[in-house]
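[User] Once you have settled down, look closely at the record that follows, and write a paragraph about the fold.
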Amino acid sequence: MNIVAALAVKELMIKNNIKGTLVLWPGIAEELVAAKAYFARDGRFKGVDAVLFTHVSSNLQTRWGGGRGTGLISVEYTFDGEAAHAAGSPWRGKSALDAVELMNVGWNFKREHLHYLQRSHYVISDGGDQPNVVPSKASVWYFIREMTAENIRSNFKALDDIASGAALMTGTTKTRRIIGSAWPQNMNRTIAEAMTANIKAVGLPKWSKDDQAFAKAVQKMLGNKETPGLATELSDMGSPPKIPVSGGSDDIGDVSWNVPTVTLRFPSNISGLPGHNWVNGIAMATPIAHKGVVAGAKVMAATTLDLLTNPKLLKDAWKTFEEQTKDIKYEAFISKDDKPAIEINREIMATYKDALSKLYYDPSKYDTYLDQLGIKYPQLEKK
Protein backbone atom coordinates (compact mmCIF):
# COMPACT_ATOMS: atom_id res chain seq x y z
CA MET A 1 0.00 0.00 0.00
CA ASN A 2 2.80 2.42 0.90
CA ILE A 3 4.65 1.66 -2.32
CA VAL A 4 1.57 2.40 -4.43
CA ALA A 5 1.01 5.68 -2.56
CA ALA A 6 4.67 6.72 -2.87
CA LEU A 7 4.74 6.06 -6.61
CA ALA A 8 1.58 8.12 -7.11
CA VAL A 9 2.92 11.01 -5.01
CA LYS A 10 6.29 10.93 -6.77
CA GLU A 11 4.55 11.26 -10.14
CA LEU A 12 2.52 14.24 -8.90
CA MET A 13 5.60 15.87 -7.36
CA ILE A 14 7.43 15.71 -10.68
CA LYS A 15 4.42 16.86 -12.67
CA ASN A 16 3.63 19.80 -10.39
CA ASN A 17 7.18 20.66 -9.28
CA ILE A 18 6.44 19.92 -5.62
CA LYS A 19 9.59 20.03 -3.51
CA GLY A 20 10.32 17.36 -0.93
CA THR A 21 11.79 13.95 -0.25
CA LEU A 22 9.88 10.70 0.13
CA VAL A 23 11.51 7.91 2.12
CA LEU A 24 10.14 4.37 2.13
CA TRP A 25 11.51 2.42 5.08
CA PRO A 26 11.03 -1.25 5.93
CA GLY A 27 8.94 -2.33 8.90
CA ILE A 28 10.90 -5.57 9.10
CA ALA A 29 10.61 -8.14 11.89
CA GLU A 30 7.30 -6.59 12.93
CA GLU A 31 6.11 -9.51 15.03
CA LEU A 32 9.48 -9.64 16.79
CA VAL A 33 9.30 -5.88 17.46
CA ALA A 34 12.95 -6.03 16.53
CA ALA A 35 13.65 -3.16 14.15
CA LYS A 36 12.03 0.24 14.73
CA ALA A 37 13.45 0.83 18.21
CA TYR A 38 16.92 0.20 16.76
CA PHE A 39 16.18 2.66 13.92
CA ALA A 40 15.11 5.27 16.47
CA ARG A 41 18.09 4.59 18.73
CA ASP A 42 20.50 4.98 15.83
CA GLY A 43 19.01 8.30 14.67
CA ARG A 44 17.39 7.12 11.45
CA PHE A 45 14.53 9.59 11.92
CA LYS A 46 16.62 12.68 12.55
CA GLY A 47 15.70 15.30 9.97
CA VAL A 48 12.43 13.53 9.12
CA ASP A 49 9.40 15.85 9.13
CA ALA A 50 6.66 13.26 9.61
CA VAL A 51 6.09 9.51 9.51
CA LEU A 52 2.98 7.94 7.96
CA PHE A 53 2.81 4.33 9.04
CA THR A 54 0.25 1.70 8.06
CA HIS A 55 -1.31 -1.56 9.19
CA VAL A 56 -3.83 -3.85 7.58
CA SER A 57 -7.30 -3.81 9.13
CA SER A 58 -10.99 -4.29 8.36
CA ASN A 59 -11.85 -0.59 8.16
CA LEU A 60 -10.30 2.70 7.03
CA GLN A 61 -9.25 4.62 10.11
CA THR A 62 -6.57 6.46 12.03
CA ARG A 63 -6.31 7.70 15.61
CA TRP A 64 -4.28 9.98 17.80
CA GLY A 65 -2.71 9.79 21.24
CA GLY A 66 -2.17 6.62 23.22
CA GLY A 67 -4.10 4.49 25.65
CA ARG A 68 -4.72 1.61 23.25
CA GLY A 69 -2.37 -1.34 23.05
CA THR A 70 0.79 -1.91 25.03
CA GLY A 71 4.49 -1.31 24.86
CA LEU A 72 6.84 -4.18 25.63
CA ILE A 73 10.27 -5.59 26.26
CA SER A 74 11.10 -8.84 24.49
CA VAL A 75 13.85 -10.63 26.38
CA GLU A 76 15.41 -14.08 26.36
CA TYR A 77 17.04 -15.49 29.50
CA THR A 78 19.63 -18.25 29.23
CA PHE A 79 20.77 -20.31 32.20
CA ASP A 80 24.04 -22.23 32.28
CA GLY A 81 24.56 -25.19 34.61
CA GLU A 82 26.39 -28.50 34.54
CA ALA A 83 25.48 -31.61 32.60
CA ALA A 84 25.34 -35.06 34.17
CA HIS A 85 23.85 -38.48 33.52
CA ALA A 86 20.22 -38.03 34.54
CA ALA A 87 19.96 -41.63 35.84
CA GLY A 88 23.54 -42.48 36.80
CA SER A 89 24.61 -39.36 38.72
CA PRO A 90 21.92 -36.67 38.61
CA TRP A 91 23.25 -35.15 41.85
CA ARG A 92 26.33 -34.02 39.96
CA GLY A 93 24.25 -31.93 37.57
CA LYS A 94 22.99 -28.36 37.83
CA SER A 95 19.91 -28.20 35.66
CA ALA A 96 19.48 -25.08 33.54
CA LEU A 97 15.98 -26.35 32.68
CA ASP A 98 15.10 -26.40 36.38
CA ALA A 99 16.07 -22.71 36.46
CA VAL A 100 13.82 -21.98 33.50
CA GLU A 101 10.89 -23.79 35.06
CA LEU A 102 11.38 -22.14 38.45
CA MET A 103 11.54 -18.75 36.75
CA ASN A 104 8.27 -19.45 34.96
CA VAL A 105 6.63 -20.59 38.20
CA GLY A 106 7.84 -17.44 39.94
CA TRP A 107 6.51 -15.17 37.22
CA ASN A 108 3.16 -16.95 37.11
CA PHE A 109 2.76 -16.36 40.85
CA LYS A 110 3.76 -12.73 40.29
CA ARG A 111 0.93 -12.21 37.76
CA GLU A 112 -1.66 -12.02 40.56
CA HIS A 113 0.00 -8.87 41.83
CA LEU A 114 0.33 -7.08 38.48
CA HIS A 115 -2.11 -4.57 37.05
CA TYR A 116 -4.90 -6.20 35.06
CA LEU A 117 -3.93 -4.34 31.85
CA GLN A 118 -0.51 -5.98 31.72
CA ARG A 119 0.09 -8.84 29.29
CA SER A 120 3.01 -11.23 29.58
CA HIS A 121 3.75 -14.54 27.88
CA TYR A 122 6.69 -16.82 27.23
CA VAL A 123 7.99 -19.83 25.32
CA ILE A 124 10.83 -22.15 26.29
CA SER A 125 13.14 -21.60 23.35
CA ASP A 126 15.70 -24.18 24.49
CA GLY A 127 14.80 -26.92 26.95
CA GLY A 128 17.91 -29.06 26.67
CA ASP A 129 18.99 -31.94 24.42
CA GLN A 130 17.38 -35.19 25.59
CA PRO A 131 15.84 -36.46 28.84
CA ASN A 132 18.72 -38.62 30.03
CA VAL A 133 21.09 -35.65 30.24
CA VAL A 134 20.73 -32.99 32.91
CA PRO A 135 20.47 -29.85 30.73
CA SER A 136 23.51 -27.64 31.09
CA LYS A 137 21.86 -24.91 29.05
CA ALA A 138 18.24 -23.77 28.69
CA SER A 139 16.50 -20.58 27.59
CA VAL A 140 13.11 -18.93 28.02
CA TRP A 141 11.79 -16.02 25.93
CA TYR A 142 9.42 -13.46 27.47
CA PHE A 143 7.24 -10.61 26.23
CA ILE A 144 6.57 -8.15 29.07
CA ARG A 145 3.76 -5.77 28.07
CA GLU A 146 2.23 -2.81 29.88
CA MET A 147 0.46 0.47 29.12
CA THR A 148 3.24 2.87 30.17
CA ALA A 149 7.00 2.90 29.83
CA GLU A 150 7.33 3.27 33.62
CA ASN A 151 5.27 0.14 34.30
CA ILE A 152 7.11 -1.83 31.61
CA ARG A 153 10.42 -1.04 33.29
CA SER A 154 9.00 -1.96 36.69
CA ASN A 155 7.68 -5.33 35.51
CA PHE A 156 10.91 -6.03 33.68
CA LYS A 157 12.89 -5.45 36.88
CA ALA A 158 10.58 -7.86 38.71
CA LEU A 159 11.12 -10.46 35.99
CA ASP A 160 14.88 -9.98 36.19
CA ASP A 161 14.83 -10.44 39.98
CA ILE A 162 12.84 -13.66 39.56
CA ALA A 163 15.41 -14.91 37.02
CA SER A 164 18.20 -14.17 39.49
CA GLY A 165 16.32 -16.09 42.16
CA ALA A 166 15.88 -19.09 39.85
CA ALA A 167 19.61 -19.09 39.13
CA LEU A 168 20.39 -18.92 42.85
CA MET A 169 18.07 -21.83 43.65
CA THR A 170 19.63 -24.08 41.02
CA GLY A 171 23.28 -23.10 41.28
CA THR A 172 23.25 -21.91 37.66
CA THR A 173 24.24 -18.61 36.11
CA LYS A 174 21.94 -16.38 34.06
CA THR A 175 22.43 -14.10 31.11
CA ARG A 176 19.82 -12.13 29.24
CA ARG A 177 19.38 -10.72 25.77
CA ILE A 178 16.96 -7.99 24.70
CA ILE A 179 15.54 -9.16 21.38
CA GLY A 180 13.15 -6.31 20.72
CA SER A 181 11.15 -3.58 22.40
CA ALA A 182 8.34 -1.13 21.81
CA TRP A 183 7.24 2.01 23.55
CA PRO A 184 3.50 2.62 23.96
CA GLN A 185 2.22 4.60 21.00
CA ASN A 186 1.77 8.38 20.91
CA MET A 187 0.11 9.31 17.61
CA ASN A 188 -0.03 12.91 16.40
CA ARG A 189 -3.45 14.54 16.63
CA THR A 190 -2.89 17.19 13.94
CA ILE A 191 -1.85 14.71 11.25
CA ALA A 192 -4.56 12.26 12.34
CA GLU A 193 -7.20 14.96 11.79
CA ALA A 194 -5.81 15.75 8.33
CA MET A 195 -5.74 12.05 7.46
CA THR A 196 -9.31 11.58 8.72
CA ALA A 197 -10.49 14.30 6.33
CA ASN A 198 -8.91 12.33 3.48
CA ILE A 199 -10.45 9.09 4.76
CA LYS A 200 -13.88 10.71 4.57
CA ALA A 201 -13.15 11.98 1.06
CA VAL A 202 -12.00 8.56 -0.21
CA GLY A 203 -14.47 6.37 1.68
CA LEU A 204 -14.61 2.61 1.94
CA PRO A 205 -14.32 0.41 -1.14
CA LYS A 206 -17.50 -0.64 -2.93
CA TRP A 207 -17.69 -4.30 -2.01
CA SER A 208 -19.30 -6.73 -4.44
CA LYS A 209 -21.86 -9.38 -3.48
CA ASP A 210 -19.09 -11.95 -3.84
CA ASP A 211 -16.83 -9.98 -1.47
CA GLN A 212 -19.54 -9.88 1.18
CA ALA A 213 -20.49 -13.54 0.70
CA PHE A 214 -16.87 -14.58 1.10
CA ALA A 215 -16.35 -12.48 4.24
CA LYS A 216 -19.51 -13.80 5.87
CA ALA A 217 -18.52 -17.38 5.02
CA VAL A 218 -15.16 -16.92 6.75
CA GLN A 219 -16.81 -15.39 9.80
CA LYS A 220 -19.33 -18.26 9.94
CA MET A 221 -16.57 -20.86 9.53
CA LEU A 222 -14.90 -19.47 12.66
CA GLY A 223 -18.08 -19.93 14.66
CA ASN A 224 -18.72 -16.21 15.14
CA LYS A 225 -22.18 -15.49 16.51
CA GLU A 226 -22.48 -12.51 14.17
CA THR A 227 -21.45 -12.44 10.51
CA PRO A 228 -21.65 -8.79 9.44
CA GLY A 229 -19.36 -9.25 6.44
CA LEU A 230 -17.23 -6.31 5.35
CA ALA A 231 -17.52 -2.81 6.77
CA THR A 232 -19.88 -0.47 4.91
CA GLU A 233 -19.55 2.50 7.27
CA LEU A 234 -16.37 4.31 8.23
CA SER A 235 -15.14 4.14 11.80
CA ASP A 236 -14.71 7.44 13.63
CA MET A 237 -11.24 8.80 14.22
CA GLY A 238 -9.80 7.13 17.30
CA SER A 239 -8.84 9.16 20.36
CA PRO A 240 -7.37 8.27 23.77
CA PRO A 241 -9.99 6.19 25.61
CA LYS A 242 -11.18 7.25 29.06
CA ILE A 243 -10.17 3.82 30.32
CA PRO A 244 -6.95 2.43 28.75
CA VAL A 245 -7.44 -0.61 26.53
CA SER A 246 -4.77 -3.32 26.68
CA GLY A 247 -3.73 -5.33 23.64
CA GLY A 248 -0.95 -5.82 21.14
CA SER A 249 2.28 -3.89 20.70
CA ASP A 250 4.08 -2.28 17.79
CA ASP A 251 7.48 -0.63 17.84
CA ILE A 252 6.08 2.23 15.75
CA GLY A 253 5.59 3.53 19.28
CA ASP A 254 9.32 4.32 19.49
CA VAL A 255 9.09 6.29 16.26
CA SER A 256 6.05 8.23 17.50
CA TRP A 257 8.08 9.65 20.40
CA ASN A 258 10.78 10.91 18.01
CA VAL A 259 8.81 12.46 15.13
CA PRO A 260 5.12 13.28 14.44
CA THR A 261 3.61 9.94 13.45
CA VAL A 262 0.26 8.40 12.59
CA THR A 263 -0.86 4.94 11.52
CA LEU A 264 -3.41 4.42 8.77
CA ARG A 265 -5.40 1.21 9.05
CA PHE A 266 -6.67 0.13 5.65
CA PRO A 267 -9.53 -2.32 4.89
CA SER A 268 -7.88 -5.35 3.31
CA ASN A 269 -9.01 -7.93 5.84
CA ILE A 270 -12.14 -9.34 7.47
CA SER A 271 -13.42 -8.41 10.91
CA GLY A 272 -13.96 -10.92 13.70
CA LEU A 273 -10.79 -12.97 13.11
CA PRO A 274 -8.56 -14.22 15.96
CA GLY A 275 -5.28 -12.66 14.80
CA HIS A 276 -1.99 -14.53 14.32
CA ASN A 277 -4.00 -17.33 12.77
CA TRP A 278 -3.98 -18.77 9.26
CA VAL A 279 -7.47 -17.37 8.58
CA ASN A 280 -6.09 -13.84 8.83
CA GLY A 281 -4.20 -14.53 5.61
CA ILE A 282 -7.17 -15.70 3.53
CA ALA A 283 -8.35 -12.28 2.35
CA MET A 284 -4.88 -11.38 1.05
CA ALA A 285 -5.45 -13.52 -2.05
CA THR A 286 -8.83 -11.94 -2.85
CA PRO A 287 -10.24 -8.75 -4.38
CA ILE A 288 -10.95 -7.60 -0.83
CA ALA A 289 -7.26 -6.96 -0.23
CA HIS A 290 -6.78 -5.25 -3.60
CA LYS A 291 -9.70 -2.87 -3.07
CA GLY A 292 -8.56 -2.10 0.46
CA VAL A 293 -5.03 -1.31 -0.70
CA VAL A 294 -6.33 1.07 -3.38
CA ALA A 295 -8.49 2.95 -0.87
CA GLY A 296 -5.66 3.09 1.66
CA ALA A 297 -3.12 4.25 -0.90
CA LYS A 298 -5.39 7.13 -1.92
CA VAL A 299 -5.63 8.30 1.69
CA MET A 300 -1.90 7.89 2.24
CA ALA A 301 -1.05 9.77 -0.95
CA ALA A 302 -3.46 12.61 -0.19
CA THR A 303 -2.11 13.02 3.35
CA THR A 304 1.47 13.01 2.09
CA LEU A 305 0.59 15.75 -0.42
CA ASP A 306 -1.04 17.77 2.36
CA LEU A 307 2.20 17.64 4.35
CA LEU A 308 4.29 18.53 1.29
CA THR A 309 2.17 21.48 0.17
CA ASN A 310 0.87 22.93 3.43
CA PRO A 311 3.72 24.27 5.62
CA LYS A 312 1.25 25.29 8.31
CA LEU A 313 0.02 21.69 8.69
CA LEU A 314 3.56 20.48 9.29
CA LYS A 315 4.30 23.33 11.68
CA ASP A 316 1.13 22.58 13.63
CA ALA A 317 1.99 18.87 13.68
CA TRP A 318 5.32 19.63 15.36
CA LYS A 319 3.62 21.96 17.82
CA THR A 320 1.22 19.14 18.69
CA PHE A 321 4.16 16.74 18.97
CA GLU A 322 5.87 18.99 21.51
CA GLU A 323 2.66 19.25 23.52
CA GLN A 324 2.03 15.50 23.47
CA THR A 325 5.58 14.62 24.55
CA LYS A 326 6.40 17.43 27.00
CA ASP A 327 5.73 15.43 30.18
CA ILE A 328 7.53 12.20 29.24
CA LYS A 329 11.16 11.83 28.20
CA TYR A 330 11.72 9.09 25.63
CA GLU A 331 14.53 6.69 26.42
CA ALA A 332 14.70 3.47 24.44
CA PHE A 333 14.36 0.19 26.34
CA ILE A 334 17.33 -1.14 24.35
CA SER A 335 20.85 -0.02 25.19
CA LYS A 336 23.55 1.19 22.84
CA ASP A 337 25.08 -2.29 23.02
CA ASP A 338 21.96 -4.32 22.17
CA LYS A 339 21.94 -5.78 18.68
CA PRO A 340 19.00 -6.98 16.55
CA ALA A 341 18.43 -10.73 16.65
CA ILE A 342 18.80 -11.14 12.90
CA GLU A 343 19.31 -14.89 13.15
CA ILE A 344 15.81 -15.59 14.50
CA ASN A 345 13.65 -17.52 12.00
CA ARG A 346 16.68 -18.16 9.77
CA GLU A 347 16.32 -21.92 10.19
CA ILE A 348 12.59 -21.84 9.47
CA MET A 349 13.14 -19.73 6.36
CA ALA A 350 15.87 -22.07 5.14
CA THR A 351 13.49 -25.00 5.60
CA TYR A 352 10.49 -23.54 3.79
CA LYS A 353 11.78 -20.87 1.39
CA ASP A 354 12.20 -23.15 -1.63
CA ALA A 355 8.85 -24.82 -1.02
CA LEU A 356 7.11 -21.46 -0.72
CA SER A 357 8.72 -20.10 -3.87
CA LYS A 358 6.64 -22.51 -5.91
CA LEU A 359 3.54 -20.72 -4.66
CA TYR A 360 4.67 -17.19 -5.53
CA TYR A 361 2.25 -15.34 -7.77
CA ASP A 362 3.22 -15.34 -11.46
CA PRO A 363 1.49 -12.35 -13.12
CA SER A 364 2.88 -13.32 -16.53
CA LYS A 365 0.67 -16.40 -16.56
CA TYR A 366 -2.34 -15.52 -14.41
CA ASP A 367 -4.60 -12.49 -14.06
CA THR A 368 -5.03 -13.06 -10.32
CA TYR A 369 -3.49 -15.23 -7.64
CA LEU A 370 -6.81 -17.01 -7.23
CA ASP A 371 -6.58 -18.10 -10.87
CA GLN A 372 -3.15 -19.51 -10.16
CA LEU A 373 -4.53 -21.43 -7.18
CA GLY A 374 -7.41 -22.75 -9.25
CA ILE A 375 -10.03 -21.15 -7.03
CA LYS A 376 -13.18 -19.60 -8.45
CA TYR A 377 -14.00 -16.64 -6.25
CA PRO A 378 -15.87 -16.69 -3.90
CA GLN A 379 -15.39 -20.41 -3.38
CA LEU A 380 -17.06 -20.92 0.01
CA GLU A 381 -16.54 -24.64 0.47
CA LYS A 382 -13.95 -27.24 -0.46
CA LYS A 383 -14.35 -28.73 -3.92
Observations:
- The CA atoms of residues 76 and 141 lie 4 Å apart.
- The chain has a mean pLDDT of 96.
